[in-house]
Amino acid sequence: MKKTIRFATPLIAVALMSGASFFAHAQDNQTPKTQSQSWNTPPAGTEQAQSAYRDGLEAAQLDKAAHRKIDAKSSHLYLHPPVKGAARDEYRTNFIAGYEAAVKHTSGE
Fold first, then answer.
1. Residue-number span of the structural domain to which 15 is assigned
2. Residue 20 and residue 69 in one domain
3. FRET partner for 63 with CA separation of 20 to 30 A, picked from 33, 74, 85, 99?
């Protein structure tokens, strides 16, 4: 009996572990394979542009939570971007895009 338990216990453990990965793989296959981009994923571009987009998303969510005026151009980060020189226009453009995406998503459009 002891020999059977010594032999069966590792086999049962291996069977249980392999079954879990099989089910996890099956769940991964159920997700649609579309190339659609999520509303909160920054568009491809420079790291600075992606950062501005994420800042816009966050600013919109904070403005909504604090019951402030929903306007990207009145946001502190729009008025005082954390970049210098010519990069300010690119930052502001991506900031507005992120802000508007968050507003559109939270309003249910």
1. 1-31
2. no
3. 85
DSSP single-letter state for residue 1: -
Q: What phi and psi, each to the nearest 5 degrees, are found at residue 9?
A: -60, -50
With respect to residue 6, please indicate whether it lies within any of the assigned structural domains: yes
**Mean pLDDT value across residues 73-90:** 90
Q: Do 101 and 52 belong together in one domain?
A: yes
d(CA 86, CA 91): 9
In a domain, 42, yes or no: no
The per-residue pLDDT for range 27-71, each reduced to its tens digit, is: 555 555 444 457 667 777 788 888 999 999 999 999 999 999 999
Q: How far apart are the first and last CA of the chain?
A: 66
